[in-house]
Amino acid sequence: MAHSEIPVVGDPGVSRSKHPALEFLGASGTVTGSRFLVTYGSDRLLVDAGLYQGLRELRRLNWAPFPVTPADLDAVVLTHAHLDHTGYLPRLVSDGFAGETVCTPGTAALTAIVLRDSAHLQEEDARVANEGGWSKHDPALPLYTAADVERTLQRLHPVAFGEPWPLGGMVVTLQRAGHILGSAVAVVDVGGERVVFSGDLGRPGHPILRPPAPPPAASAMVLESTYGDRRHPPVDPEVLADTVRRTVARGGVVLIPAFAVDRTELVLLELLRLRRTGLIPEVPIFVDSPMALASLDVYRTALSSHSDELDLERAAPLRDLDRLDVHRVRDAAGSERLNRPKGPCIIISASGMATGGRVVHHLLRQLPDPRNSIVLTGYQAQGTRGRQLVEGARAVKMHGRYVPVRAEVVATSDFSVHADADELVEWVASAPELPQTVYVVHGEPTSSRALADRIQDELGVVAVVPRRGERVLLGS
Q: What is the DSSP letter of 458?
């Protein structure tokens, strides 16, 4: 079936009350802003409520009127805690959404950290804009406030993996996705049909999480494609180890922008392993991100409760950070002191794409010094400083001025917790029955198109890249 032949809900003769339907409200043609609406009769379920990040034209979409009146939504399901899947939720609450938000206990714990940090940044950005007078709006307002977040968190409804959750004519079941702690594949049974939402799918060889569960048989699948056009190269720990050794020999600082949730844990575990085995020198390691430290506490709590998501043996060193001489920097004064280190050291700080947070202040200080190194450990979206650095920018703009890039910039994919193209295709193929249609989302256009072509060519399944705002019927 050609893309243009897929029936849409607005087609003549199609009744929304009789047919379950799916609408793509975000993450279509881009790797951010995941929002998918399932409707059946009067029931409306939103799967993920993500914030758009990266390019300015995408960020502006956060301010556009939501296509559905938020008060008409019955519930929201969160696949995991990352901002591009949860960060729009407080805005929905601010605009009238009053239903429950279903997620796993791990996602609930991490979402509280992520959304509180997001509200702080929103309010801080509005304050700076008003003081600087550079906003087009008078006054500049945050997308949402800390109070909106607290109301949002009161509506989180944790459910265990495998526990069915009914909503009118729908039933939602969450299964393990292996991306970050609490991450889930959302299975929605609606009107005699089943649609599977991958969320962000983890890798079979995640360092500390159990792998994704195979998908169940379904009529439709909504599949992420962050790495849909590439394979991860073999893991090469020597990249990080050699970078640390070179930098320390120069008397410099290794600065690692890392996502606060999951990535900081993985980078820290690898650095501890390299130090324990003598592959890098005994230099101080600082974790400078209140958000990352709070997330680290969630992982440590999961360890203590023997969570069945974690590989308890591999994650065990997270229990002993104080004994292992890892310095946790919580206060702003301590963060400021790291801008003038006494000697070579390693600093892990958020955000992972260098779009905000304390890492921006560190980059401002460390980028001009050729003794230093910047190690980028994850996907860098279009429009972010991390992407500019990966692509060889000679200067990047921060705090209103351009800063020269003289430090060594190193990118490694060893810490990626997104399934690559081969792993995504294999996951689809592992279902007991192949879906009728796979909708490829949450990727840059070339990535999504490449994955859709592979699925269609190799599995013989109709695979399309939907447009933002497009509606399709579920089932035959």
A: H
CA separation for the pair 57, 338 (Å, rounded): 34
Max CA-CA distance within the chain? 73
Taking only the tens place, the pLDDT of each residue in 167-221 is: 988 999 999 999 999 999 999 999 999 999 999 999 998 889 999 999 999 999 9
Q: Residue 18: left (phi > 0), alpha (psi -120 to 50), or beta?
A: alpha
Closest CA to 440 of 31, 20, 10: 31
Cβ atoms 110, 182 nearer than 8 A: yes
Sheet holding 253-257, edge to edge: 326-329, 285-288, 345-349, 253-257, 373-376, 408-411
Which CATH superfamily does the domain covering 3-230+417-473 fall into?
Ribonuclease Z/Hydroxyacylglutathione hydrolase-like (3.60.15.10)
Class of domain 238-411: alpha beta
Q: Which of 12-16, 160-164, 259-263 is predicted least confidently?
A: 12-16
* 3-class secondary-structure state, position 284: coil
Which of 363, 454, 448 minimizes the C-alpha distance to 32? 448
3-state SS, residue 269 = helix
